[in-house]
């Protein structure tokens, strides 16, 4: 059986063959896949789909298929809050304990804006559930997640002093929307966002599984694809069930309709958050963070975007305001990199995306803290790093590849370079940045 591929002409423009090629999986006769859409001036100008929403029943993906949105949900959670802020019923400067008295009084006030911009230091709710022993967070309830958040005696850092992406912060933001509006969060989002825009298929989960035509998520296992619908059934940080065609209705409102995306709401959503010092929040990749949206320049273009990732779902919704274009990729397979795929889709559609990797310095660098030496040499586009340390019987070689922000990465390890190439900074996980100074003449 051949893998189904759907190409639809929309607004008198057919999807380029290369878009379909990007989504195709010639290695498998039957596989999960992706849907993609390209938009210009608020209208969908091309779409393509490849793969199955349900492998067992051979149901193909299409524009009406519902996907678990994962963190794509955050912009809709922020949007729900923004509608209340625009109506004067909520403020970004409000102390969250005004609405969530169960939350402890921390060393500094946590505001609604800090939750929205990931600067509150609220611990990640999904991580807390896993640390508490729940391996499958898809079995967790909203009350269980909230209870863990309310039990935290401290924040991860002083609120307002740093940026740290937190699913817990967005769960609390959704709970505030629920308490201020007086309606269950899912119901308020339906009334305030989905219904006015005609997004009839989309909804936030409220303790239930996906509805009709919802795609299963899949991961490869032992040469075949197996179902992994292991996502939480409550909303805020995730929980959105969304289709490509409904995102088209949302995109039209952003560009043309402004029924929900009003100027007042847009101002809230598109303003990058700031730390207590006044410095603009940096998401670690050189972009700011607004209302559930990464905002800034990437690969030579100005982007407003957010991804979504669960075990078996990978998505990106990217808007290019200067070009009045947008691109969506929704995938129900966990083995593909959505950012790479959508970048390919954009380039196939004529968007010039620059290669911004910075040339790495060569030579030898030493860290006294690690008692280790890194020898750097470029090999084509890769950076070969030879690591010498008293902990090693012989030097070990690692290969780093360029990242979008000009750094080089090898798995979870990231390397950046100082001005004048006099030092490098290496970070991994929670280690923080460790400085290596250039060795001149064999001495540091």
TrEMBL record:
InterPro entries: AmpC-like, Beta-lactam-related, Beta-lactam/transpept-like. Keywords: Signal. PANTHER family: BETA-LACTAMASE-RELATED DOMAIN-CONTAINING PROTEIN, D-ALANYL-D-ALANINE-CARBOXYPEPTIDASE/ENDOPEPTIDASE AMPH. The keyword Signal applies. Pfam families: Beta-lactamase. Residues 1-20 form the signal peptide. This is CubicO group peptidase, beta-lactamase class C family. It comes from Edaphosphingomonas laterariae. Residues 28-342 form the Beta-lactamase-related domain. The lineage of its organism: Bacteria, Pseudomonadati, Pseudomonadota, Alphaproteobacteria, Sphingomonadales.
């Amino acid at each position: 059986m051949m893998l189904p591929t759907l190409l639809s002409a929309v607004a008198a423009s057919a999807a380029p063959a290369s878009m379909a090629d990007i989504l195709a999986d010639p290695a498998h006769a039957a596989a999960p896949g992706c849907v993609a859409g390209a938009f210009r001036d608020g209208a969908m100008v091309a779409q393509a789909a490849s793969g199955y929403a349900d492998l067992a029943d051979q149901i193909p993906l299409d524009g009406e298929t519902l996907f678990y949105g994962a963190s794509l949900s955050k912009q809709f959670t922020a949007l729900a809050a923004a509608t209340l802020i625009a109506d004067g019923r909520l403020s970004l400067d409000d102390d969250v304990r005004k609405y969530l008295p169960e939350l402890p009084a921390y060393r500094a006030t946590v505001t609604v804006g800090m939750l929205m911009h990931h600067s509150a230091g609220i611990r990640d709710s999904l991580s807390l559930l896993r640390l508490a022993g729940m391996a499958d967070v898809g079995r967790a309830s909203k009350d269980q997640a909230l209870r863990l958040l309310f039990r935290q005696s401290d924040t991860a850092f002083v609120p307002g002093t740093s940026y740290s992406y937190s699913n817990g912060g967005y769960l609390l933001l959704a709970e505030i929307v629920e308490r201020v509006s007086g309606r269950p969060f899912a119901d308020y989002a339906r009334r305030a966002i989905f219904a006015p825009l005609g997004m009839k298929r989309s909804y936030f989960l409220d303790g239930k599984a996906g509805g009709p035509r919802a795609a299963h998520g899949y991961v490869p296992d032992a040469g075949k694809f197996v179902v992994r619908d292991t996502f939480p059934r409550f909303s805020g940080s995730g929980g959105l069930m969304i289709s490509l065609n409904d995102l088209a209705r949302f995109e039209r409102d952003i560009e043309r309709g402004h029924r929900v995306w009003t100027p007042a709401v847009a101002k809230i959503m598109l303003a990058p958050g700031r730390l207590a010092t006044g410095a603009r929040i940096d998401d670690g990749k050189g972009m700011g963070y607004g209302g559930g949206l990464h905002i800034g320049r990437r690969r030579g273009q100005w982007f407003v975007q957010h991804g979504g990732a669960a075990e078996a779902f990978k998505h990106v919704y990217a808007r290019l305001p200067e070009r009045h274009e947008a691109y969506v990729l929704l995938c129900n397979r966990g083995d593909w990199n959505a950012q790479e795929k959508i970048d390919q889709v954009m380039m196939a559609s004529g968007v010039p995306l620059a290669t911004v990797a910075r040339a790495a310095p060569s030579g030898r660098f030493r860290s006294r803290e690690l008692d280790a030496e890194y020898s750097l040499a470029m090999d084509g586009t890769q950076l070969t790093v030879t690591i010498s340390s008293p902990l090693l019987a012989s030097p070990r070689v690692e290969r780093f590849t360029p990242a979008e922000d000009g750094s080089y990465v090898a798995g979870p390890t990231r390397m950046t370079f100082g001005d004048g190439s006099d030092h490098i900074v290496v970070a991994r996980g929670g280690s923080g940045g460790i400085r290596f100074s250039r060795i001149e003449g064999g001495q540091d």
